[in-house]
Amino acid sequence: VQLQASGGGLVQPGGSLRLSCVGSGFNIDDYSMAWFRQAPGQEREGVACLSSIDDSRYYEDFAKGRFTISSDSAKNTVYLQLNNLKPEDTAVYYCAADYAEYGSTWSNAPFDYWGQGTQVTVSS
């Protein structure tokens, strides 16, 4: 199982980015897929999760209404659309995968597989 994240960059406040996470060696439809982030000096936190249970989508409060997690089975890719970005969204964003069926407690779950991270910087 491998995950390759991309799409980060420098964007002004209010701007948008779309992060991609390409999976290899497994079928993303069979796994719970999630995005986490870690800002300098802070602990890693969950952002959004696409559950394998019933394709439910879960978001942390700060992400609701601004971020959207989605997937493309044909491309075996999970996306994170980031809209209305704020300076406090600056962080390294990681995608993660696990065969377990995570629900609403996903952000505390021990995901087995991680991508390498992609830097998102929001600054004017």
Notes on the structure:
Helices cover 0% and strands 48% of the residues. A hairpin with a 4-residue loop joins β7 and β8. It is mostly beta strands and 124 residues long. The model has no long low-confidence stretch (mean pLDDT 95).
Describe, in short, the structure shown.
This protein is mainly β and 124 residues long. The protein has no helices and 11 strands. The strands form 2 sheets. Strands 2, 4, 5, 6, 9, 10 and 11 form a 7-stranded mixed sheet that branches.
How does the SSE layout of this entry go?
Blueprint: E1 2-6, E2 9-11, E3 17-24, E4 32-38, E5 45-50, E6 57-59, E7 67-72, E8 77-82, E9 91-98, E10 113-114, E11 118-122
| Portion in strands | over 45%
User: Helical residue percent?
Assistant: under 10%
The total of helices stands at 0
Spatial extent as radius of gyration? 13 Å
Outline the low-pLDDT stretches.
Answer: none
Principal-axis shape: globular
Number of strands: 11
In angstroms, what separates the terminal alpha carbons?
A: 37 Å
Structural class by sheet pairing and helices: mainly beta
